[in-house]
């Protein structure tokens, strides 16, 4: 390709008037080895464009988003939370019942002990009553 | 649309989507996420795809919108993209030095362009789309595309000349 032609194309290129084929010509020229010395700075530019086009997306694309997974995870987490709260509540309830049972038992024990003390005293009272009956005549009914 | 048919229509331009996203978002990881997200969106809207004349142009429009949204939200949350954070991991030192010398300079020049110019340079000079196609993707008139492109190309040339002259003198 003639140098004059390239210079003309470059001028057009700056004004964004080149077609795709003309730009391809420029790219070809500047990626070749015999570039005119006064145009060397363009070599870097067009070289850069060519190498940029070779960059590839290497990861695999997932069409099922990870977001939905997150949603399910949160559902699962809330279920776990509910269950654990429920069982915790249940356990707590059981422990509470046990505690109340123990307390009642203690209370009943105390009551029965004191009751027995009372019956001993009453038995003594009965003795007193008997003695009194012996001494005093009973009124006839 | 079945999955195989869908893949046949959308897979050919996945690299283009990725490169455009990378041009706008700078980092490879971000661009990968964007590509993944975009294909998921396409898959969800697979029923509507038939209504579009060019699915590729439609996908490019979506990519552009998605990337601009990402950039906006990043600015809003004060998370600025700093170029140095996104150096490629696997380039060896001597390769990096070599790159710094020439190619990455061009990369940097393009990176410093305004978003719209960056995008149009990518679509025209790298992906080699026709002006009509780009106009459809960006919802602009072809003349407006030409003006923007010319501006971008001139800026790049000026900067390159400046650096070249520094190198010589």
Walk me through this protein's architecture:
The complex is a heterodimer of chains A (141) and B (169). Chain A is mostly helical. Chain A has a domain of 50 residues. In chain A, 76% of the residues lie in helices and 0% in strands. Chain A has 4 helices and no strands. In chain A, helix 2 crosses helix 3. The N and C termini of chain A lie far apart (152 Å). The model of chain A has no long low-confidence stretch (mean pLDDT 87). With 169 residues, chain B is mainly alpha-helical. The longest helix of chain B has 27 residues. In chain B, helix 2 packs across helix 3, helix 2 runs antiparallel to helix 7 and helix 8 crosses helix 9. The model of chain B has no long low-confidence stretch (mean pLDDT 83). Chain B folds into 2 domains: 86 residues, Rna Polymerase Sigma Factor, Chain: A (Orthogonal Bundle); 79 residues, Arc Repressor Mutant, subunit A. Helices cover 73% and strands 0% of the residues of chain B. At the A-B interface, helix 2 and helix 3 of A face helix 2, helix 3, helix 6, helix 7 and helix 9 of B.
